[in-house]
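As a next step, the fold was encoded as tokens, giving this record:
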Amino acid sequence: MTFVVPEEIDAYSAGHTTAPTDLLARLADETRATLDAPQMLTGTVEGRFLEFMVYATGAKRVLEFGTFSGYSSISMAAALPPGGHIDTCEVDEKHAAVAQRYIDEAGYSDRITIHLGPAVETVERLEGEFDFVFIDADKPNYVNYYEAVLPRLSERGLIAADNTLWSGRVLDEAEQSEGTVAIRAFNEHVRSDSRVVSVMLTIRDGVTLIRRA
């Protein structure tokens, strides 16, 4: 996958970001070597960004759509305040197994719960509000995930949606693949939603931050 930031700038940014822990570095290596679609890996810059978001907001209740191999969950868990917890949703058993192994090794099994199955169904079973929500799962369901959690945000809760620049393909009107069409639809849905305030950032493949107006 080609991201929106030039490769050399992306490398410079990563090189001037605090390096990941040894555990996260090993997790990244295993993800690239053994899992399909390793480009879905969160990586150094976005992992630290998510950690900072949890730290800065003081989020105690975090919800994640799309666990993959657990990099983002583990990154966010490092910044949770006492009593904080992450519920992360995953449909692929192989991905969940890798994530659980590293979560256990990190000592975060009491901070992170992986829910295997359709994410919207998982959210319906969970109670209460969320302080921070990270959407990074199947693109055709982005609007559904957004609508499921928007009413469940805490007073100062935030949503972060990943891949909203989609390697720049959002600008190519001739590009009509399912993922591209879905991301365009999500971006327009958020932009036209009077219930929220949003900002689209050029971090990695595009991250949109959303809060209630």
About this structure: The chain has a mean pLDDT of 95. The longest helix spans residues 43-57. The chain has one domain: 7-212.
